[in-house]
């Protein structure tokens, strides 16, 4: 039996250990990006002259030609100097001067100069440390469909998740968990990775006060001993929410994946019920009581009449008030 060299075994073990838990997440340093771009752009193959800075920005996902500015997530490659309180404002001022002087169409020169603003004003470049690379929209769609296939979720159910909400479907919660796991934003043991989520969501979770509240929220939910899928959903909904959030990216990806007319075919499908929870209507569907039924079922007493009953016909045997023969007043002559 031929034994493998110890170095090869060690390398294989490290690769496996790094891959588990990161899933599809990619990490690159500026030096790695520079090496990739040097291969792609050598000997004028790109036909755009010197454009390596723009290429590095595209590889590490901090450059977008339509904006003509580096994304805020470029700061992951720079370390501000200790005690420098003006680095941010000076960088913004430099970026404003560059964008005013160089047109948007000149993307290569604009990338060179705007990135130079970070090198001159923001801080020291860390070109060796590999950093998380945010996913593109195309990668989101691929990972979503991989999760759909792995979990056996019928594609037609995706429209229901958008129409009614993730909270009504257990398989939707599991699909969200798979999506976050595959993109390396979440693990069952450690919860959300704030740094990667922040990079994916354009710096939405950079604020330290937000992170402290989010960690407290995660601890509180873990104490409830929820199942894995419900826990992942509740964390995404309650702890790491916001205008730009992983849950919103997930729903936005579903909207792109489902057919454009799928939502129009669903109006006849009733809203599902959450197990163990009934959704009351605003007004109970009960018949209104009639007025008499509001009172006790008692017979009202009859009141005595104030006057005696008078007969309608007078009796014939009433005594006469005068005698029959009237006496004469004068004597008979």
From TrEMBL:
Keywords: Disulfide bond, Secreted, Signal
NAD in keyword set: no
GO cellular component: extracellular space
Source organism superkingdom: Eukaryota
PANTHER family: GENERAL ODORANT-BINDING PROTEIN 99A-RELATED, ODORANT BINDING PROTEIN-RELATED
Subcellular location(s) per record: Secreted
Family: Belongs to the PBP/GOBP family.
One record GO biological process: sensory perception of smell
Segment forming the signal sequence: 1-19
Pfam families found in the cross-reference section: PBP_GOBP
Protein name per the record: General odorant-binding protein 45
């Amino acid at each position: 039996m031929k034994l493998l060299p110890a170095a090869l075994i060690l390398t294989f073990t490290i690769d496996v250990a790094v891959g588990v838990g990161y899933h599809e997440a990619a990490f690159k340093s500026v030096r790695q990006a520079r090496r990739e771009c040097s291969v792609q752009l050598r000997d004028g193959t790109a036909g755009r002259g010197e454009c390596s800075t723009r290429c590095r920005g595209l590889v590490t996902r901090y450059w977008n030609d339509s904006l003509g500015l580096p994304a805020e997530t470029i700061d992951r490659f720079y370390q501000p100097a200790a005690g420098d309180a003006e680095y941010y404002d000076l960088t913004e001022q430099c970026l404003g001067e560059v964008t005013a002087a160089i047109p948007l169409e000149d993307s290569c020169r604009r990338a060179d100069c705007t990135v130079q603003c970070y090198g001159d004003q923001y801080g020291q470049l860390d070109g060796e440390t590999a950093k998380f690379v945010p996913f593109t929209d195309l990668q989101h769609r691929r990972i979503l469909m991989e999760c759909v296939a792995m979990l056996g979720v019928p594609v037609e159910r995706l429209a229901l998740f958008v129409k009614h909400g993730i909270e009504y479907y257990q398989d939707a919660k599991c699909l969200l968990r798979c999506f976050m796991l595959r993109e390396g934003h979440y693990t069952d043991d450690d919860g959300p990775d704030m740094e990667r989520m922040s990079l994916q969501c354009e710096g939405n979770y950079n604020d330290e006060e937000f992170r402290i509240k989010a960690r407290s929220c995660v601890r509180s939910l873990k104490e409830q001993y929820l199942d894995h899928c419900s826990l992942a959903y509740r964390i995404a909904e309650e702890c790491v929410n916001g205008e730009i959030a992983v849950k919103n990216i997930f729903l936005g990806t579903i909207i792109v994946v489902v057919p454009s007319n799928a939502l129009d075919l669903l109006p006849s499908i009733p809203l599902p019920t959450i197990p163990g929870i009934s959704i009351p209507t605003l007004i109970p569907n009960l018949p209104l009581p009639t007025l008499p039924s509001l009172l006790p079922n008692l017979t009202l007493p009859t009141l005595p009449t104030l006057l005696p009953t008078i007969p309608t016909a007078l009796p014939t045997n009433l005594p006469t008030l005068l005698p029959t023969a009237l006496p004469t007043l004068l004597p008979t002559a």
